[in-house]
Amino acid sequence: MTDSIVFFPQLNRPAPAFNAKTTHGMRSLTDYKGKWLVLFSHPADFTPVCTTEFIGFAQRAEEFAHINTELLGLSIDSVHSHIAWVRNIEENFGVDITFPIISDLSMEVAKAYGMIQPGASDTSAVRATFIIDPEGVLRAMVYYPMSNGRSIDEFVRLVKALQTSDANGVATPENWQPGDDVIVPPPATTADAKARLSQGYDYVDWYFSKKSL
């Protein structure tokens, strides 16, 4: 029974360390200290849904770089398979995959991040995405089924939202976009709750107020 247990990393805790072979040489989590990291897994090379996702990430790579964010892919395939697939994408779709891809034949990284789920496959990583902050802390994780591709727009948005919350001590509402109002943290005392109405926010109730940045 223990073989079927999936271990998941925890939000707001240090992300699992790794030192792995990639298409750009060896990479470890410490290589990304000081930057945000989007680590994402895919079931297999040379598959159509994964190909669209890699094209999508590659086409947004400069935008990720602009917000101090690196991209790092992973699948349980060899480096040679990754290289062949990257070359195939460039030849057939005209898109250069500029970010490294981890070769995880041992499944060591995939298991540490809960990417292997027996309900989906014992030998392939599901579509999992992890956002790790500049201190190596796991801040968000999102899982998709093998049959459906991710929205790259959502991960750009989510990184920007996390950065905005960190920089300003605020939360962001549903589908928040840069430039939208943000949510002010609720007051912690009854006195603060009474004072909230007069503090100049876009006030709805004592627990719900918004402001612009």
Task: Give a topology summary.
Blueprint (H helix, E strand, L loop, with lengths): L18 E4 L2 E4 L7 E6 L6 H12 L1 H6 L2 E7 L3 H15 L7 E3 L4 H5 L14 E6 L5 E7 L7 H17 L13 E2 L6 H6 L6 E4 L2 E4 L2
Parallel strand pairs: 3-4, 4-5
Antiparallel strand pairs: 1-2, 3-6, 6-7, 8-10, 9-10
- The helix content is 25-40%
Gross morphology: elongated
The end-to-end distance, rounded to whole angstroms, is 51 Å
The arrangement of helices and strands along the chain is EEEHHEHEHEEHEHEE
Please compute the radius of gyration using only Cα atoms: 20 Å
Please state roughly what percent of the residues sit in beta strands, choosing from under 5%, 5-15%, 15-25%, 25-35%, 35-45% or over 45%: 15-25%
The largest beta-sheet arranges its strands as: 5-4-3-6-7
β-strand number: 10
Uncertain segments of ≥5 residues (pLDDT<50)?
none
How much is the average pLDDT?
93
Q: Largest sheet at a glance? A: 5 strands, mixed
Which structural category do the helix and sheet elements fall into? alpha+beta
| Count of helical regions | 6
Summarize the structure.
The protein is built from 6 helices and 10 strands, in the order βββααβαβαββαβαββ. With 213 residues, it is of the alpha+beta class.
Note down, in words, how this protein is organized:
- The protein has 213 residues and is of the alpha+beta class.
- The chain contains 6 helices and 10 strands.
- It has helices at residues 48-59, 61-66, 79-93, 108-112, 152-168, 190-195; strands at 19-22, 25-28, 36-41, 69-75, 101-103, 127-132, 138-144, 182-183, 202-205, 208-211.
- The protein is elongated, with a radius of gyration of 20 Å.
- The model has no long low-confidence stretch (mean pLDDT 93).
